Amino acid sequence: MSIDSPAPPNASNAVTSLVLGILGIVLCPLLGPIAWVLGRRGEQEVDASGGAVGGRGMATAGKILGIVGTAFILLGIVIGLALIAGSPAAP
């Protein structure tokens, strides 16, 4: 009879980055860079813990969603500048 040990607790930055990454994609892309940074910190926290803290997958997912949200911001800026530059001058 084997008894499984409980899973280690998740890194707080991992959960936060995942939540912010999802919100950044769905509601507000301005949260993307924050999710990106917190996801990277979460990955570093999990790696440095030596197995005492889990949640690396959530941190990575939050980081990736943050990168996508940041790309949406940049795309919006480029499109906005293109529209401004392409608009006819007022007489």
The percentage helix is over 70%
Number of strands: 0
Figure out the total of helices: 3
Largest sheet: none
Overall spatial form = rod-shaped
Fraction of residues in β-strands: under 5%
Class derived from helix and strand content: mainly alpha
Number of domains: 1
Characterization of the model:
This protein has 91 residues and is mostly helical. It has one domain. It has helices at 12-26, 32-49, 56-86. α1 (12-26) runs antiparallel to α2 (32-49) and α1 packs parallel to α3 (56-86). The radius of gyration is 19 Å and the shape is rod-shaped. The N and C termini lie far apart (85 Å).
Task: Based on the model shown, name its key terms.
mainly alpha; 0% strand
Q: How is this structure best summarized?
A:
With 91 residues, the protein is an all-alpha fold. It has helices at residues 12-26, 32-49, 56-86.
Secondary structure: elements and pairs:
Elements: H1 12-26, H2 32-49, H3 56-86
